[in-house]
């Protein structure tokens, strides 16, 4: 098993995919991942990928501002491909379902799974990995459906499609088609073992509260008070700054909301979410579901923490590689919001990742929601997170 990546800044989809194809070997190619900025027409990408790689399953999604591979951080317009090369008894299969086809979110995910299993010719089997990409909105329901379908917590790595300015210019693609409102997944039955990692990289502050009124992805009240007012007060008290309502969103990537996802050695670990916008009622609309009576806290993360956490997630995932076997390649999902906060410092993230991967291939889109498997085995959706999967040579 091996991996190759290729990057193009050509704006013409036909020219870009042709040049990408020239850089990727065809022998033993079994799967593709494709990440691109909003500058490209997804229907044209799918058409050209089908022509350049006939019969090869692929999935992908739009990425915020750029993509990253072992060759660097590539600012858009850009398309990046990762070719996965494997041999028998491997199998890879994709599914894509548009929301318009069904209102039941569990049923949508189940249909995509069945489509992918049929595509891989592995009906009735349990994959080693699910790569999930959806447009923002229902990621928790999709994860629940995947867990229920397989009856066990198959590792998930995923990222919600993103655009450059949160204007819903996002999309998902696969060899099955395109959607601006749906989900796609690829099921992996690889010939080599893999390990996963999922981490927040932020620390809890002393400011905590209980959600007393919410609905789906909106918090209306915290401790019986308007959520907007409580959130702003928390930030002001922790940062020591007088923050106006107009500028509250300048601080979101510094101060997300955390919820305890589990504990290990009596220490909690968190999944994050961050507000998308304020509601007229003084609520906070989020990029993840919440529920009444949930305990939440203000989280904080320094630039140094954000720079080091991606490589730390790779390192933690690789500690499960007990025999220190050769790393073959990795898929890494990095939050778009965190990337935007880092600015030029994203180059330091790249340098740390390259070192941790020993120069081996990886691909990394910047997404508006991250899915992964926590250290205790549960799959979850969060924001401002880092998710990864590493493939390695077995002993």
Describe the structure concisely.
The chain has helices spanning 13-22, 42-52, 105-120, 139-150, 227-239, 303-318, 336-342, 346-356, and strands at 2-8, 29-36, 58-62, 66-69, 72-75, 79-85, 91-98, 129-134, 156-159, 172-174, 177-179, 182-189, 194-199, 203-215, 218-222, 225-226, 257-264, 267-273, 275-278, 284-286, 295-300, 327-335, 362-367, 370-373, 379-382, 386-392.
Structure description:
Helices cover 24% and strands 38% of the residues. With 395 residues, it is of the alpha+beta class. The protein folds into two domains: 2-199 and 305-392, no CATH class; 203-300, no CATH class. The strands form four sheets. Strands 14, 15, 16, 17, 18, 19, 20 and 21 form an eight-stranded antiparallel β-sheet that branches. Strands 1-6-2-3-10-11 form a six-stranded mixed β-sheet, with helices on one face. The protein is globular, with a radius of gyration of 20 Å. The mean pLDDT is 90.
């Amino acid at each position: 098993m091996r991996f190759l990546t290729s990057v193009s800044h050509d704006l013409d989809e036909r020219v870009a995919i042709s040049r990408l194809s020239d850089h990727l070997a065809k022998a033993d190619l079994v799967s593709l991942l494709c990440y691109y900025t909003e500058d490209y027409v997804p229907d044209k990408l799918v058409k050209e990928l089908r022509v350049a790689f006939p019969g090869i399953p692929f999935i992908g999604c739009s990425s915020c501002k750029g993509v990253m591979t072992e060759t660097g951080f590539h600012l858009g317009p850009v398309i990046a491909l990762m070719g996965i090369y494997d041999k028998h008894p491997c199998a890879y299969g994709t599914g894509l379902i548009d929301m318009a086809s069904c209102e039941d979110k569990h049923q949508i995910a189940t249909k995509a799974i069945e489509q992918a299993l049929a595509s891989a010719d592995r009906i009735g089997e349990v994959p080693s990995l699910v790569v999930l990409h959806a447009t923002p909105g229902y990621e928790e329901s999709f994860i629940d459906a995947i867990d229920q379908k397989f009856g066990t917590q198959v590792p998930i790595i995923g990222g919600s499609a993103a655009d450059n300015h949160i204007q819903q210019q996002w999309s998902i693609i696969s060899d099955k088609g395109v959607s601006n409102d749906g989900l796609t997944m690829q099921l992996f039955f690889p010939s080599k073992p893999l390990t996963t990692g999922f981490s927040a990289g932020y620390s809890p502050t002393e400011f905590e509260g209980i959600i007393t009124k919410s609905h789906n992805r909106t918090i209306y009240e915290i401790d019986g008070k308007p959520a907007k007012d409580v959130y702003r007060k928390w930030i002001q008290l922790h940062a020591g700054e007088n923050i106006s309502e107009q500028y509250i969103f300048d601080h979101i990537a510094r101060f997300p909301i955390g919820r305890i996802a589990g504990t290990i050695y009596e220490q909690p670990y968190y999944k994050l979410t961050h507000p998308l916008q304020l509601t007229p009622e003084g609520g906070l609309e989020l990029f993840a579901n919440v529920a009444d009576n949930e305990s939440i806290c203000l989280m904080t993360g320094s630039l140094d923490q954000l720079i080091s956490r991606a490589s730390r997630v790779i390192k933690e995932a690789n500690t499960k590689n007990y025999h220190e076997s050769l790393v073959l390649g990795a898929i890494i999902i990095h939050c778009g919001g965190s990337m935007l906060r880092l600015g030029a410092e994203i180059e330091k993230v790249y340098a740390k990742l390259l070192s941790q991967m020993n120069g081996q291939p990886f691909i990394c889109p910047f997404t508006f929601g991250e899915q992964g498997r926590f250290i205790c085995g549960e799959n979850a959706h969060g924001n401002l997170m880092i998710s990864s999967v590493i493939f390695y040579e077995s002993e």
